[in-house]
Amino acid sequence: MEITNILDLMDVSIMQNIQEFFANTMDISLQCFDKNNPLSEPSNFTNFCSKYTQASEIGCQRCNNCLKKWLKIVAEKDEPIIFNCHAGLLNFGIPVIINDIYMGCILGGKVLTEPADEEYFRQLAREIGVNEEEYLAEARKIRIISHDKFKTIADSLSLIA
Predict the structure, then answer these.
(1) Could you say which DSSP state residue 52 is in?
(2) Residues in contact with 39: Cβ distance below 8 Å, sequence separation at least 6, in sequence order
């Protein structure tokens, strides 16, 4: 059987269930992509991202630009990468490579390594046109995790991928 797509190997509902399990177990956000598009629905996304940042026209555009940039970078790698999104949250990209062919990736994270920098998030709220107090309240809810533990999570998922 020739494999040309991740979905040649796995049904999307099974992929979604596995993704949900890992996202909830590790308390991070996860989403699977083929070369350019989502294969799954986002799992465990923060309100900070979905309800505020992406609900703003400017914030959504920044998220889309950031996503395109990192999908391209992950496609050029053969190991997990860790990066900060435009909003300052820590994320990872894990390439899915089958028979030496890049098939897509897993993006995950949306965490911080230290408590939210209140002035940074207030400024970001002003830039994207959302309520500062509500945005800051959501930023305070973002999971805080050490960089080392985050890298371990990314490496673990990479082994599975």
Answers:
(1) I
(2) 6, 7, 12, 15, 32, 33, 104
Q: Could you tell me the pTM of the whole model?
A: 0.90
Beta strands in the chain (DSSP E): 29-33, 81-84, 90-98, 101-111
Distance of CA 71 to the CA centre of its chain: 10
Summarised one tens digit per residue, pLDDT across range 5-37 is 766 667 888 889 999 999 999 999 999 998 888
Place of tokens 């082994």: 159
List beta partners, residue 84: 90
C-alpha dihedral sign at 12, 62, 69, 91: negative
Rounded Cα gap, residues 154 and 106, in angstroms: 10
- Dig out the tokens for 40 from the structure: 């799954």
**Dihedral of the alpha carbons of 59, 13, 69, 61, in degrees to the nearest 10:** -20
